Amino acid sequence: MNVELTERKKKVLRSVVDLYIRTAEPVGSKLIAELPDMQYSSATIRSEMADLLAMGYLEQPHTSAGRVPSAAGYRLYVDELMAEYRLSLDETKSISSAIEEKMQKVDKMVEKVAKLVSQATDLPAISVASRYGGATVSRFDLILAGQGSIILVLMLSSDEVVNKLIKLPVQLEENDLKLLAALLNATMTELPVEEFNQALLERVMRSAGAGASLVPIVMEFVVDTLNRQGSTNMAVAGQMRLLGQPEYRDVDKAQRLMTSLDEEALSNLPAVMQNTNGTQILVGPEHVARELKDTSVVMTRFDIGDGMQGMIGVVGPTRMDYAKVTARLSYFAESLSKMFAKPEQPQLPEAGKEE
Predict the structure, then answer these.
(1) What pTM, to 2 d.p., does this model score?
(2) Which domains does the chain have, with CATH numbers?
(3) Nearest alpha-carbon partner for 68 in 284, 299, 342, 336
(4) Dihedral of alpha carbons 15, 17, 22, 25, sign
């Protein structure tokens, strides 16, 4: 029998998450019934909580009478239920003042931003600055290197030349390689790295004849080469702030998480943001890093200019105040984008025209 997720159930779930965020203690029906905007009895709320437990949105820790949100409960809360958090004037002034005072040069931006975000959220923070070289392939050459192998040569728009020795998966003649090289030069030159996708791969393979099995190898090497043309700087700050959270009073649990909060474990997060606008929230099991499966990450992007993109995020317990963290990160991102934006150059009057 399916249980419907009614508006009343959503309101109860939102109240459980809000109270658990504030108290870090399992939430009971009586506490929810005492909320000013809650018009339901304790018995009704208890019944709704039982349904939410059965639906997987709540969990019961040990033998406690209270309930806590599950990963699915947090996901629904983030997607549909959390109220917008409005920053106070003091908060906006504090963040703006800190940025203006400490953010003077891009070269040290990453470390400074990570520390500022960690201080503003009281959580471990990650800051990333990526420079995209914007290089493309200007020319492909395929050279028969001997029995069963070829050399793939790429000439890049940056005038750099790179090559790769490839063991042929099938026997190819020199004419086959000439045909494939001509096809590659006609379809895969001057393309940004994001256009090297499955659709392009399939289109080129359909026209590649005997050399079709080489196309995936060529594309993989091109993507790796173009990605390396950029550079990424990353910093992590405030890991010790997790020790102040009730979830990590267990020394062994805290130690395991602390050792995984490094740049290696977080290195895949920028890729998660590649094709995402605005803020993204990963709850528990949704993480790309196995080490972070019991935490949540909130991330957002901002523009630095000069071919650079910034990303900031925080890592914390799934009980974190998502609305407040999201609001603060968004304000950080907007402020940083404005700070790094180049001032518009004044337009000169056209020759022969008077002002």
Answers:
(1) 0.64
(2) 7-81 (1.10.10.10), 89-132+231-340 (3.30.450.40), 137-228 (3.30.390)
(3) 284
(4) positive
Tokens, residue 274: 């590649």
- Do residues 242 and 274 make contact, with C-beta atoms less than 8 angstroms apart? no
pLDDT of residue 351: 45
Six-digit token string for 7: 């508006």
How many CB atoms are closer than 10 A to CB 107?
Answer: 9
Dist CA 190 CA 263 (whole Å): 33
Strand order of the β-sheet with 137-146 is 137-146, 149-156, 161-167
HSE toward the beta carbon, residue 307, CA cutoff 13 A: 9
Instruction: Write out the H or E segment, with its range, that includes residue 187.
Output: helix 174-187
The Cα 226–Cα 135 span in angstroms is 6
Point out the residues of the chain with pLDDT beneath 70. Answer: 1-2, 64, 100-107, 131-134, 146-147, 169, 229-231, 263-265, 267-268, 270-277, 285-291, 306-307, 342-355
Find out whether 280 and 126 touch, Cβ atoms under 8 Å. Answer: no
- Dihedral (Cα; 273, 242, 28, 70), 10-degree rounding: 30
